[in-house]
Write a structure and sequence with these properties.
about 240 residues; mainly alpha; 12 helices
Length: about 240
């Protein structure tokens, strides 16, 4: 599994594309926080709220771009057939690709800790609410983990990286905000709207972002990830037959 993980890591950083994707993510977030209109200096107090509101939408673009070549390139070049000859199970191959891509995404998120240091240095008084900030980062990492699983699953359908990107982008958007948007329709009343909203990622991400780590939110994220990886394995099994 770790051999596949290492391969994914090296493949992403083997050319400038990987560095450009991560750089764009950091620059866009940095500009939104410190430069653009309604930046953190407009609030009058230390907060990373804008970052945690914006980051999921940027990850919607970043993560499909990271994962889009994972399986499609293997199918297109025929190297997936070589992978199957290795002493690895399908589950190990999927986990290797998933963990490899997830590490790349986490590598993009880690430099954002500099935002915390910067704001703490600029703040007058107590600075950031570290409990809420820590919870928000935990939620962001789980969100990234789910989006990565979606990207891996989307890539298992096709040998075209662009198609994989589009499928992953749409699926991430629907799972993140689709349930929330649908729950606001007038036809969903009497409590149905609440349960419909609860089915979406945004509901659980928002809960954790408040600094309250609820086991139900953690179980939700882990269940979605496991389900997507199982579906990926079934999809690959169907490709064999």
């Amino acid at each position: 599994m770790w051999m596949i993980c290492k391969k994914e890591w090296q493949q992403f950083f083997s050319n400038l594309t990987g560095y450009i994707i991560i750089t764009v993510f950091l620059v866009v977030n940095g500009l939104a926080l410190f430069v653009f209109e309604n930046n953190i200096f407009s609030f009058g107090y230390a907060t990373l709220e804008k970052f945690f509101l914006l980051a999921p939408w940027i990850l919607l673009l970043l993560i499909p771009a990271v994962t889009m070549r994972s399986f499609p390139d293997e199918f297109k070049t025929g190297t997936y057939e070589v992978l199957k000859t290795l002493p690895l199970s399908s589950w190990q191959i999927i986990l290797g690709k998933y963990v490899g891509n997830l590490l790349v995404v986490f590598m993009a998120l880690l430099p954002t800790f500099i935002y915390i240091i910067s704001i703490q240095q600029l703040a007058v008084g107590d600075g950031l609410d570290m409990a809420a900030t820590t919870g928000a980062y935990i939620g962001l990492f789980f969100l990234a983990a789910v989006f990565t699983a979606i990207g891996i699953y989307a890539g298992s359908f096709t040998n075209n990286a662009v198609v994989a990107f589009v499928i992953s982008l749409i699926a991430c958007a629907l799972l993140y905000y689709g349930f929330n948007a649908t729950s606001k329709l007038p036809i969903f009343t009497g409590g149905i709207d609440y349960y419909l909203e609860m089915a979406g990622i945004d509901f659980h991400y928002s809960n954790i972002s408040k600094g309250v780590i609820d086991s139900r939110d953690i179980i939700y994220f882990l269940s979605i990830i496991l389900l997507l990886l199982i579906l990926t394995m079934r999809n690959l099994a169907n490709k064999k037959s």
